[in-house]
Write a structure and sequence with these properties.
The complex is a heterodimer of chains A (about 625) and B (about 850).
Chain A (H helix, E strand, L loop, with lengths): L1 H21 L6 H28 L5 E11 L2 E9 L1 H24 L6 H20 L3 H19 L6 H32 L5 H4 L2 H10 L1 H18 L8 H4 L5 H10 L4 H8 L1 H4 L3 H24 L3 H22 L2 H20 L4 H12 L13 H12 L4 H18 L6 H20 L6 H24 L4 H20 L6 H29 L15 H15 L6 H10 L6 H26 L16
Antiparallel strand pairs in A: 1-2
Helix pairs in contact in A: 1-2, 1-4, 2-3, 2-4, 3-4, 3-11, 3-16, 4-5, 5-6, 6-9, 6-26, 8-9, 9-12, 11-16, 14-15, 14-18, 15-16, 19-21, 20-22, 21-22, 21-26, 22-23, 22-26, 23-24, 23-25, 24-26
Chain B lengths: L9 H11 L23 H12 L7 H9 L5 H12 L4 H10 L16 H6 L3 H17 L15 H10 L9 H8 L5 H8 L6 H10 L2 H12 L12 H20 L6 H4 L15 H28 L11 E5 L6 H10 L3 E5 L9 E3 L7 E2 L9 E6 L18 H24 L19 E2 L14 E2 L3 H15 L8 E8 L22 H12 L1 H9 L9 E8 L4 E4 L7 H26 L11 H12 L16 E5 L7 E2 L4 E5 L9 H7 L2 H17 L12 E4 L3 E4 L11 H4 L8 E5 L2 H9 L2 H8 L4 E5 L6 E5 L2 E5 L7 E3 L3 H5 L8 E3 L1
Parallel strand pairs in B: 1-2, 1-8, 3-5, 5-7, 8-9, 11-13, 11-16, 16-17, 20-21
Antiparallel strand pairs in B: 3-4, 5-6, 9-10, 12-21, 14-15, 17-18, 18-19
Helix pairs in contact in B: 1-11, 3-15, 4-15, 7-13, 9-13, 10-13, 16-21, 18-20, 21-22
Classes of the chains: A mainly alpha (about 625), B alpha/beta (about 850).
Chain lengths: ~625, ~850
Amino acid sequence: MTTQLLFHIFILIPVFGFILSIFIPGKNEKLISGIAFSIVGVHFIAFLAYMVYWLMNGHPTLNFKDIVLFKTTGYEFYIDFLFDKITAVYFFVGSLLTFMVTIYSKAYLHRENGYKRFFNTLLFFYLGYNIIIFAGNLETLFMGWEILGICSFLLIAFYRERYLPVKNALKVFTVYRIGDVGLILAMWMSHHLWHQNITFAQLQNDELIHAQLETHSLVGVFISLMILITAAAKSAQLPFSSWLPRAMEGPTPSSAIFYGSLSVHIGVFLLLRTYELWENQVSVRIIIGVLGLATSIVTSLIARVQSSVKSQIAYSSASQIGLIFIEVALGFENLALIHFAGNAFLRTYQLLVSPSVVSYLIREQFYNYVPRKATFEDSFPKKIEYSIYLMSIKEFNLDSFMYTVLWNSLKRLGKKLNFLTLNNLFIFFVPVYLIGLVCLYTKAHIPDDIHEYLPAFFALIGLMMVLKSFAERKNVILSWTLIIMNHFWVALAVSFNENFTYDQIHLYLSGIVVAGIVGYVCLNKLRSIEKNIDLNQFYGHVYEHPKLAFVFLLACLGLTGFPISPTFVGEDLIYSHIHEDQYVLALFTTLSFIIDGLALVRIYARVFLGPHIKTYHESPYRSS
Amino acid sequence: MKTETSSFDEHKVLHELKHYLPAQAPLKDFIHHNTLHAFQNLNFFKALNNAHEILGYNVSLSLDEYRSLYQTKKIKENILDKVIASQKGANNINEWKTKLISQRYDNSNNARIGQLRANWKKEFSIDLDLLIQPILFRVLCSYLDQGISIWNFPVHELGFLASIKEMEKNTYTSFFKTERAKKLLLSDKCQIEDLLKIIVGDESLYAQYIFDQQFSHQGWSGMVSTIEDQPETLLDSKKISIKELVTFELLLEIDALDKKFGKIWSPLGQRIERRPIDLFAEVPETELRDVFTIWQLAYEWSYYDEVLAGLQQGIIEKKEIPSKSFQIMLCIDDRETSLRDYMEKLDPNCETFATPGFFGVEFYFQPEHGKSYTKQCPAPVTPKFLIKEIEITEGRKKDVHFAKHTHGLFRGLIISPTLGFWSAFRLFISLFKPSISPATALSFSHMDKLSKLTIEHKEGVANENGLQVGFSYEEMATRVEALLMSIGMVKNFGPLVYVVGHGSSSVNNPHYAAYNCGACCGRPGSVNARVVSFMANHPKVREILRSKGLNIPAETQFMGGLHDTTRDEIVFYDLTFLSAENAKLHTENLKTINKSLDLNSKERSRRFESINSKLDAAKIHKKILSRSVSLFEPRPELNHATNTLCIVGGREMTKKLFLDRRAFCNSYDYKIDPEGKILVNIMKPLGPVCGGINLEYFFSRVDNHKLGAGTKLPHNVMGLFGVANGIDGDLRPGLPSQMIEVHDPIRLLIIVEHFPEVVLKTIKSVDAMYEWFINEWVNLVVMNPETKKLSVFKNGDFTNYEPLAKKLNTATDMTSILENNLDNIPVYLIK
């Protein structure tokens, strides 16, 4: 029981710090950084003290089930905590680095616009990080995961009045969202495999795990691969690597701690955490190893040709993480942990001193100038050398690949749905929805052949809604409404699956309705002040309406099912009603959720971020 | 490929383009200059208007800022009335005042630049910048890279475009996505005009299109243009020209357009219905611009008036000090004035002078083991001499964190799990106990303290790269004489004359060169101080000087030193040469000097949030030292952030005046220069050097986004020559916001102590110098040394000026005022 209390404290300290930091006036720099510094400092010291105790007691693996957030027959959503060697190492590295970075940033960000915003986000990130590393089951971990994603977006777009940071923040957020697909599907499938929300500790239970996996080996592979996708996206492995250097848009210390160290190594953490799950699946281990190897080779080639200091550090870090993936695949857990800690420290420090590189290297060059050092590539045939060089300069087209494959194809699909207008929506889709509802109540009378397809059919309509919302260029309100409607379609679709009580649907939709209305009011208010707003360009309205922007951001988070809204539990619940053989339904629903998040962040970015549409004040170049 | 009918003259257009592009050199050679140098042939306010309208720069404070300055009385009402009367007539004061104070204006920025090329996105939904710039910047940066990448651009000897061509010929992949661009590159139909014909079609729009295109990334274009003109600025030299850049970019555009529209599309010129206004068409005058002009003038004269009143009321008679403890020559730099105040206050028997910090000796310096030279004189001067450092005592320290092998795959595997833990430890230490490390750019390491210099030219020593090694005695004497004459130090020499250059130390600061001595080309002035002292001490030089009537007593000794303006430390060189008496005297003087440095750091600390200015001076000095080497400190010092004045004359003018480190001071004695012959040489560099510094701060302050570098916190070092935001942004020339945030954008006011007619003749004697004054890029006031009357230069002549401020602030001691104020402090008379 005392341990449990202790763990509550470990989680509550950052929660407390984050909430406290929100209420400090923005002008009071000393207090803001002071709080961040003391919270992280106390956290770190408390942890060190506990570590001594834990180590002296034979460093046991601790696991306990915490608050149950929702419970119904056959389903339980609960918070679960786990503490073991992996948590200990990630905690040590994470809190030490965060502690040092808060001290660093205290003076470094002095007089910067957004001083408070920076520390708020940093503390929120720290909270998310702690939730992840203490998480005892995928559901808890997913909460932290979502927090990390949104913090990344906010920190990359820290200089929100400029074009490139906002554009790159959207890019990175897209990749993170893809990672989330993996995690959601893995949760869905594992729920069905074990008929419960399984904890990581249970994974160590051979009987439970292997008995199931042996009979459902394909399912096991599916879950493992989904987790791998998530890990690869977060840890900048192929084919996602190109997001990492593009994330270096915020102030240097935030780049250092996020993309130099903590955030980018979380993928490794996920693999270590789920090791027992795929330990006996040789094929999965081979895939992880090969992916790591391929990444380390490709990214180290790219790192070799980088002529800017931050992108060089980013790619060399990614290549080391590739090696860590190999170590994990081989089962060298301790080596992977040491490698992680070293790499995180090294890259953080290199990024923090990166501005010194000019005076240092110029001085070195002044004394040791050799016209041109031969590199091993010079021994290649000319044509091969030039080709590899050119490919490395173009980052093996990874960035344009992500862009064309993901973003553009979604756009193209969405554009095909131009018939979806506000009018059509009400004239056509509301009646269809009503018919759907009628069917739902009379589903006993619907022939099985038809009934079988109805869930997927309604989910598809929902998916169309978000696709259109994502591709919409003109009408913000339409885009917003479509996202709300999507959730209703999903609810309808799943309702066909089986009989479950309406309170589950209520739980899911309550968050949606509230967030939907709040967001709608915000947009309407903005439209009444600023007249024209569309989604064809960045408007940067946060310059004049920072408060409105903040409320709207909360509404967006609510609508995505962020863990501030009951929808978060509701979403998981929805999945528990998708049967394991309903791949199509699961796919449509997952795609809906993912694109939904993208569409929302896009609306927020387009309307509130980027270069301000009004030019009566100093405004940055687009290329800056 | 110019055909007879073509109205497009490529050479002329590119020449003009280069004129307008930013002219900032690579970081290591950062030198302040007038950011709007391209408009310098116009009157200041006309130039602002044009730059705003044509290139979209913000060129003044905002109306709100001016209005709040007026409310807080920083802009004074009587001055405002006077300015309105002179600009708009005395009858219209009230009408214009209402406009200034309360009228609403639409100040939206509708720059002409970019409008033509914007049609691609507006009308045809293709975002060329987004498609082209990332790859263009990366190729440029890789080609020009000075040492960040491990694997360099494989072909480089041929010049930029030829290297691209060579690679394109020999590769399985391509710079382009489509065929036509590739074919064009490899064919000989790749002149700018041919490519523009495909993209634009209409000859009359070519020039404008190129301007639009290059100004969409003026940072990179400016860097290419600068490197084209001064290839020697890169140690690893690269051949590149703006012509090649434009050609390559046009090819990328064709590539992107082909990819989007297929092979057949009509050029932009044929597609647009409304032609944009010509870039350089006459810019109309608007009422709003007049409002800005009046506000700016009122803002400037509110400050000038106070200073001029102070000069008139505070000037004292010159008194000769009977037995001098020491004389010291410092740089004219605004950061040195407060130090002079403290020295004179602590030791009334010392005498201080200021002169440009290269001390009149121009040469290249080669440190021992250095592979090339650094210039140690103002940028426009091309020296014929070389000074070499020999017999150094200390080696350079290295830091493995900057080593490239940490980025290798396999060595990284060994390094990151091991060195990584060391990094964490290092970071921890550097946060709690900052200290000098190899990452620090340290002013004192520019030259080894105990090394020797080859100052004497030995007969028979061959020239190196066309430079004479050392100076002959004649050459030395000429320089020493000129230096002493210019500051009026021709008689009554004390026993010790310190010649102290200045430099700066910082860490994590890509703009480190901007903090050093501008008169030494962005380097510390230690070598110059040592060299000129050696010259002035040499018996043979003294002999020659004696024959010219300049008699330096045998017991007088010169001694070089370096003042680190960030750390407030002075190091002296060649101590062993001092005579026994002087050595004793020096020990005494050091007490004064060190105390002055403590007090100086206390005065500076009032601007720093992290230091409590009420503490004891010595304690504050320790904090200042630690601040200068802190990784996390983006403001190691404030550099020239407060500059507004430049005073040429005797120390008596300013001795009783508190000017808050805002004045460049140049010691000058009009009595020994009745015709202004020396004055010409003093005033010639004031425009480009002090005016350049002032205007760079001015423009970086009023438009930190477009004319400055923005906040430095997200900066990423590109190729060791520039900074950008993130990894694919444009280069950011200009000053970062951390350098200019406390700066008041006020033009430099030069005040000369001499007779108006002599000064008029002086400034008219050189056209380039006169341009600065007649076009009002700097303001000029002359103080008649006999009548103390002031006259201001306007429209080619001097007119009498009577300050409006009658009563000034007075204080006996500034300490408590300094301790309690964070902002600029008005002029005080010291009683």
